[in-house]
Hints:
The chain is mainly alpha-helical. Helices cover 83% and strands 0% of the residues. The longest helix has 91 residues, at 3-93.
Amino acid sequence: xxxxxxxxxxxxxxxxxxxxxxxxxxxxxxxxxxxxxxxxxxxxxxxxxxxxxxxxxxxxxxxxxxxxxxxxxxxxxxxxxxxxxxxxxxxxxxxxxxxxxxxxxxxxxxxxxxxxxxxxxxxxxxxx
Length: 128
């Protein structure tokens, strides 16, 4: 075998080794790319889930805020109605002597019964 033949053999052998190395690197790179793609999909899913949960929490907070505002408004309306009723009753009875007279016992019993009904939980009333 001549030195030219040896050089060709070494060149072919070197080219084969280099090709094998490049092929192995491409396989590793492809595997890493696939893993990175899977990781990206998982992270995207996690982000989407977190955004969905956060959006749900924001909606819940908005609902509770609206309920709180409605309750506050209802309390103010009730308080205003109570005050107006007190003023109306006070004005209507200011010149009347009904506050000085005795309440009939039947009327007092009826008022007690209505009070028990109003204070009964859930509006359930047991007649005595």
